[in-house]
């Protein structure tokens, strides 16, 4: 038995549809039918971005979607890159 998808913003609400731009599930309060009910809806951040009201609205909502594992990997890679630059520079000091 499968559980219904949950809204990406309201985690306790069942998803009623998917944003046609970012392809994430949302509840009916989060979806906007910008071009009528015959066309797939947009989530609020993507609708604002598509309308030109906020050019970063959709990008901002997707930025946090890498999750904890992605953030840890990103932090580990940046630390390794900093060490690769710093260690050879420090070896010439003595």
Topology:
Blueprint: E1 17-18, E2 25-26, E3 31-32, E4 42-43, H1 44-51, H2 57-63, H3 67-91
Antiparallel strand pairs: 1-2, 3-4
Helix pairs in contact: 1-2
Describe this structure in words.
- The protein has 94 residues and is mainly α.
- The protein has one domain.
- Helices cover 43% and strands 9% of the residues.
- The protein has helices spanning 44-51, 57-63, 67-91; strands at 17-18, 25-26, 31-32, 42-43.
- Strands 1-2 form a two-stranded antiparallel ribbon. It has a two-stranded antiparallel ribbon with strand order 3-4.
- A hairpin with a 6-residue loop joins strand 1 and strand 2 (25-26).
- It is flat, with a radius of gyration of 21 Å.
Give a quick summary of the entry.
With 94 residues, this protein is mainly alpha-helical. The chain is 43% helix and 9% strand. It has one domain.
Q: How many beta-strand runs? A: 4
Mean pLDDT across the residues is: 76
With strands numbered from the N-terminus, the spatial order across the biggest sheet is 1-2
Number of domain units? 1
Series of H and E elements: EEEEHHH
Instruction: Give the overall shape.
Output: flat
**Cα distance spanning the termini:** 66 Å
Assess the beta-strand content as a share of residues: 5-15%
Largest sheet: 2 strands, antiparallel
- Helix share bin: 40-55%
Main attributes of the structure:
43% helix, 4 strands, two-stranded antiparallel ribbon, mainly alpha, 3 helices, 94 residues
């Amino acid at each position: 038995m499968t559980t219904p998808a949950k809204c990406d913003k309201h985690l306790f609400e069942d998803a009623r549809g998917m944003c046609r731009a970012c392809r994430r599930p949302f509840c009916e309060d989060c979806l906007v039918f910008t071009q009528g009910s015959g066309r797939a809806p947009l989530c609020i951040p993507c609708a604002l971005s598509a309308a030109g009201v906020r050019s970063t609205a959709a990008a901002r909502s997707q930025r946090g979607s890498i999750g904890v594992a992605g953030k840890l990997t990103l932090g580990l890679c940046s630390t390794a890159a900093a060490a690769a630059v710093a260690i050879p520079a420090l070896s010439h000091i003595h």
